[in-house]
């Protein structure tokens, strides 16, 4: 019997800004992803004081513009997902395809018809859509004109967007998430909050105000969804990095406790429990802030309490170690969140430390804390794939990574965790959000496209494609066949 429950949602995950392309087709407006340069220095560039969201086509390449052309090839891609046996497919609706500038009062019907087609194609293959309403693709106009999510007006604009898509697809889509990796703004507010230094990203007051505005917007989306259909499930989505104290020094233990509160739990506590946690006071004080410094109304706090999310979606790629007593401890180069190097772990090609046991810990920690269903909506290995002349990719390293994390999920389910599903990130190769590269590949499907935008865009099944196909077919990792017992040497006829 499988460790995974019947009806477990096996699938894969993508985001519109990283795969759709067609960035000026169908009336779509520009998003913040269109203003991000390609390459490993993209975050360094947008962190400069003078970066102002100006798109300089001559200076940078913009791989997000092209993506992998899902806009024209979605039928082919969804058919490949169906061939793998996907039960669900997590994707996002590009806000600027529905409201090109973000602040219009009427949606773009051509953009909505595209998502009509994508959703219907999924359903035709018995694949349940799992939709992220906002996934690192804020309309560029809202970042430039309004300064991003620090502006209270964005609640109104998001509510209109959410109401539009929730109403249109309430009869077809059961599972939704409001904001992708909402807590990531603790380290890079450019993606989740649409803020850069020139618009106040370095002022933590703006980050906390932006979070509050997103919490309110999320609660409004839950209210809209539950008013449409009682069975609609709206989740939050957080970036979870299991955190360890580097050693048993009480100072590091305390620092690790606070790291968990401040990064892994804060946004979840508000969205799941419906209120700001007690440690908010300490967290704000780190930045010389008080709760009273934020623009928050009693009505908004009541809304948060009344409309918490239904489940917790989260991404898990790596764990972190916290060390505050020795400044000479080796650090990890690849983790966007920083942190010290854990000597017990290996790292990916991009320096992300691989820790499947940390996923089991994460699942237990989250379920113990919230007692609501969990959904692993991102997990995977970004690696350099080297196809042969026929575009075969023997990605055993990816299979090994995913196998270990699936085993960790099975262990968590055995621990008593209520786990809804698993959608590995980048189930088809797409543009990396952190580096703007195609060479950082996650998919089960190889896309012939390089970092300069050269290639046929043709799709090829990797070795992991067939492996994951078997995982879904077996509702988990196939168990070893039982070994037939040897004959009784004493001939005692023990039957």
Automatic annotation (TrEMBL):
Question: Per the record, a Pfam family?
Answer: Glyco_hydro_1
Question: What is the uppermost EC class here?
Answer: hydrolase
Please state the Enzyme Commission number of this protein. Answer: 3.2.1.-
Q: Does the keyword Hydrolase apply?
A: yes
Single GO molecular function = hydrolase activity, acting on glycosyl bonds
Keywords noted in UniProt: Glycosidase, Hydrolase
- Please list the residues that make up the active site: 378
Entry's PROSITE patterns? GLYCOSYL_HYDROL_F1_1 (PS00572), GLYCOSYL_HYDROL_F1_2 (PS00653)
What the record says about family reads: Belongs to the glycosyl hydrolase 1 family.
| PANTHER family cross-referenced by the UniProt entry | 6-PHOSPHO-BETA-GLUCOSIDASE ASCB-RELATED, GLYCOSYL HYDROLASE
Q: What is this protein called?
A: Glycoside hydrolase family 1 protein
């Amino acid at each position: 019997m499988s460790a995974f429950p019947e009806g477990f949602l096996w699938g894969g995950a993508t985001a519109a800004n990283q795969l759709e392309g067609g960035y000026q087709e169908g009336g779509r407006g520009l998003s913040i992803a269109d203003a991000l340069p390609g390459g490993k220095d993209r975050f360094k560039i947008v962190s400069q004081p003078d970066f102002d969201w100006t798109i300089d086509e001559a200076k940078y390449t913009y791989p997000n513009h092209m993506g992998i052309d899902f806009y024209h090839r979605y039928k082919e891609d969804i058919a490949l997902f169906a061939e793998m046996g996907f039960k669900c497919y997590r994707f996002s609706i590009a806000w600027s395809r529905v409201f090109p500038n973000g602040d219009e009062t009427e949606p773009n019907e051509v953009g909505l018809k595209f998502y009509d087609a994508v959703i219907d194609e999924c359903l035709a293959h018995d694949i349940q859509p799992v939709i992220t309403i906002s996934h690192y693709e804020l309309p560029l106009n809202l970042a430039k004109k309004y300064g991003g999510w620090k502006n209270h007006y964005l609640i109104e604009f998001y509510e209109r967007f959410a109401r539009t898509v929730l109403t249109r697809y309430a009869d077809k889509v059961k599972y939704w998430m409001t904001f992708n990796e909402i807590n990531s703004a603790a380290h890079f507010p450019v993606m989740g909050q649409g803020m850069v230094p020139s618009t106040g990203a370095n002022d933590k007051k703006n980050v906390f105000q932006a979070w509050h505005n997103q919490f309110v917007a999320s609660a409004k989306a839950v209210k809209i969804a539950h008013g449409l259909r009682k069975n609609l499930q709206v989740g939050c989505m957080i970036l979870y990095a299991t955190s360890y104290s580097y050693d048993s020094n009480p100072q590091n233990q305390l620092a690790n406790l606070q790291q968990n509160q401040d990064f892994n739990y804060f946004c979840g506590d508000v969205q799941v429990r419906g209120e700001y946690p007690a440690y908010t006071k300490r967290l704000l004080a780190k930045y010389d802030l008080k709760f009273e410094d934020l623009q928050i109304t009693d009505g908004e706090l009541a809304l948060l309490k009344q409309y918490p999310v239904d489940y917790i979606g989260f991404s898990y790629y790596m764990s972190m170690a916290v060390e505050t007593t020795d400044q000479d401890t080796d650090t990890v180069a690849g983790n966007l969140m920083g942190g010290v190097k854990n000597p017990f772990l290996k790292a990916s090609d991009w320096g992300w430390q691989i820790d499947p046991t940390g996923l089991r810990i994460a699942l237990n920690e989250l379920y113990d804390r919230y007692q609501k269903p969990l959904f692993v909506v991102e997990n995977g290995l970004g690696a350099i794939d080297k196809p042969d002349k026929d575009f075969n990719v023997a990605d055993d390293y990816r299979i090994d990574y995913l196998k270990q994390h699936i085993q960790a999920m099975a262990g968590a389910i055995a621990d008593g965790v209520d786990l809804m599903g698993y959608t590995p990130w980048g189930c088809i190769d797409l543009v990396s959000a952190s580096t703007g590269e195609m060479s950082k590949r996650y998919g089960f499907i190889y896309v012939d496209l390089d970092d300069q935008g050269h290639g046929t865009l043709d799709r090829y099944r990797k070795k992991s494609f067939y492996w994951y196909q078997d995982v879904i077919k077996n509702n988990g990792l196939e168990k070893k066949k039982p070994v037939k017992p040897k004959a009784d040497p004493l001939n005692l006829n023990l039957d």
